[in-house]
Specification:
Layout: E1 14-17, E2 20-23, E3 31-37, E4 42-46, E5 51-65, E6 68-72, E7 77-80, E8 86-102, H1 106-109
Antiparallel strand pairs: 1-2, 2-3, 3-8, 4-8, 5-6, 5-7, 5-8
Length: about 120
């Protein structure tokens, strides 16, 4: 995928699971993922070898990292270390979050998900 300015609307969403969509532009060493979770929907518990950081852009999200769960409000940020199980759930409405992965998730770059 070419790097430079990003037009989110020009990137076709990938569906991770029912009610969960991502758009994943990337460069050589880093990937962004705009995550949209519909009200009541869940990103199932999973882990991967990539480091992941993110921020809630809109809504409330229950995030579990390892054995700890918190309700995150708009503006809250998080870091998920490699190989640590984590799970996300929309609370009281839809959620938009921006995740950053390093290195690039090759599965997402190919339009699939190898870890959920």
């Amino acid at each position: 995928m070419p790097t430079g300015f990003i037009d989110w609307d020009s990137i076709a969403p990938q569906q991770l699971s029912p009610g969960v969509r991502i758009r994943t532009p990337h460069g050589r060493n880093i990937m962004l993922s705009l995550v949209e979770i519909d009200a009541g929907c869940v990103v199932a518990a999973h882990s991967h070898p990539h480091e992941q950081a993110g921020m809630v852009l809109q809504g409330r999200m229950k995030l579990t990292i390892g054995g700890e769960s918190r309700i995150l409000e708009t503006g809250a940020a998080y870091i998920v270390p490699p190989d640590v199980p984590h799970r996300a759930e929309a609370v009281d409405g839809p959620v938009r979050a921006l995740d950053v992965f390093s290195p690039v998730r090759e599965d997402y770059a190919r339009g699939r998900n190898a870890y959920i």
